[in-house]
Amino acid sequence: MTVENGKPEEQVSEEAVAAEHETVEEFVLNEEGGVPLGDEAEQSAGSELQQQVETLTEQLAQAKDQTLRAHAEMQNIKRRSQQDVEKAHKFALEKFVDSLIPVVDSLEKGIESAEQAEGSHEGIIEGMNLTLKQFLAAMEKAGVKQVDPAGQPFDPNFHQAMSMVPNPDMESNTVMDVFQKGYTLNDRLVRPAMVVVSK
């Protein structure tokens, strides 16, 4: 066995074969489109990973946005449904109240007629007044309020002007007389008060 450069001949030959084999593998990989070796390969892999991370981050942000929008829409639907139910409860009596108002009008007219009639009708008047108070109290418990605006400023939201009359003793646009009282149900107008307004 001979020694060359201080190394056995067999060892030098094996190292040379290994180096040559490694060079051939690198060449084949590069030629066949395999993963390139060295710093360029690491940079390319890092760039691809960065693009994937950015794409996934964008998709996640879009999914979060869609989820938040869907949640907000559900909350709006729920709130609108609750409001509709509340309105239905508050104003379900509107038609019933509308049919009771003429009864109140009749009682009030009856009391006025009894007060103007000749003779003693105090018992009848007192009984009718008590009935009217009970009736109005029962309606008020259901959210119905009487609008009697005599002496108050004219409000077109709750009053309907039948005529305007000059009156130096009152401020302009003040209700002088009430022909017919108005009514509200839970602060919503059922019937406006018919009034005479000063000018």
From TrEMBL:
Gene3D superfamilies recorded: 3.90.20.20, Head domain of nucleotide exchange factor GrpE
Region (Disordered): 1-21
Residue stretches spanning the membrane: none
PROSITE patterns in UniProt: GRPE (PS01071)
Keyword Membrane annotated: no
Keyword annotations from UniProtKB, A to Z: Chaperone, Coiled coil, Cytoplasm, Stress response
Coiled-coil positions: 46-80
One Pfam family from the record: GrpE
Domain of life: Bacteria
Compartments where found: Cytoplasm
Bias (Basic and acidic residues) ranges: 1-10
UniProt family annotation: Belongs to the GrpE family.
Function: Participates actively in the response to hyperosmotic and heat shock by preventing the aggregation of stress-denatured proteins, in association with DnaK and GrpE. It is the nucleotide exchange factor for DnaK and may function as a thermosensor. Unfolded proteins bind initially to DnaJ; upon interaction with the DnaJ-bound protein, DnaK hydrolyzes its bound ATP, resulting in the formation of a stable complex. GrpE releases ADP from DnaK; ATP binding to DnaK triggers the release of the substrate protein, thus completing the reaction cycle.
Subunit structure: Homodimer.
Protein name per the record: Protein GrpE
